[in-house]
Amino acid sequence: MERVIPTEWFDRSAVSVAPDLIGCTLVRQLPDGTQLRGLIVETEAYQEGDPACHAYRKQTKRNQIMFGAPGYVYVYLIYGMYHCVNVVTDRIGAPSAVLIRALELSPATLDTISLKPKEKPIRAAAGPGKLCLAMQINLDLYGTKLELGQAMWIEHRASLFQRGFANDWQAKLDLGTIELIQTTRIGLTQGVDLPWRWYVKGCKAVSVFEKLPIEN
DNA sequence: CAAACGATTTCC
DNA sequence: GAAATCGTTTGT
Fold first, then answer.
1. Residue nearest to nucleotide C6 (CA to C1')
2. Which long-range contacts link A148-151 to residues 24+ away (Cβ below 8 Å)?
3. How many angstroms separate the CA of A158 from the C1' of B12?
4. Strand C nucleotides in reach of protein CB atoms, 7 A cut-off
5. Nearest nucleotide from residue A126 CA, by C1' atom
6. pTM value?
7. Per-residue pLDDT of chain A (216 residues; tens, 9 = 90+)
């Protein structure tokens, strides 16, 4: 069974894709063939009518990929020093994307990369900027297609590989008993009340813990 | 052309 | 609580 997610899978709203990406595996293939892998444990959706979306105002050089076909990579530089990686979603002409905010890196990946001196391994990709550092994602990946053999692709939940390294929350996810928290997004000045952030409850690789589920 | 800003992280 | 740091976007 093919585990690589096809681009058509992303051809729906970002709000629909974002929670479904939790538990999937982000794969980064370096030029030398090395693969870096991590389970997606936190996502945020950005779409039309959302004042926080980079495509809210108009099409620009930076956001143009969001206006195109789903299943492509949107990378941007934030605060002049970090990168954030998104997956473009929805049909052509419906600018939207899902920001990948945190990964639980595979043991093999942790062996491959160099951790900061005092960094806990579980926190190595806890946050959108740290995630891109760990996975060696930069602007070079802007506009690339998520496809097997490319610089990056995404694999469906619950592969045998995933069971091998995930913490106990993955088993729960397979059983359908995992708790996915839906709450408001991080670090915004606009659209602060839209509940378009999802993360795995109890996962120590998530960027921010304190945000609780939306009431009612 | 100048100025402000930002979907972050880290350190004081 | 505040600095670091720079390409993009917006205003004059």
1. A80
2. A148/A4, A149/A29, A150/A29, A151/A28, A151/A29, A151/A73
3. 43
4. 4-10
5. B9
6. 0.93
7. 579 999 999 999 999 999 999 999 999 999 999 999 999 999 999 999 999 999 999 999 999 999 999 999 999 999 999 999 999 999 999 999 999 999 999 999 999 999 998 899 999 999 999 999 999 999 999 999 999 999 999 999 865 445 545 566 666 666 666 788 999 999 999 999 999 999 998 889 999 987 655 554
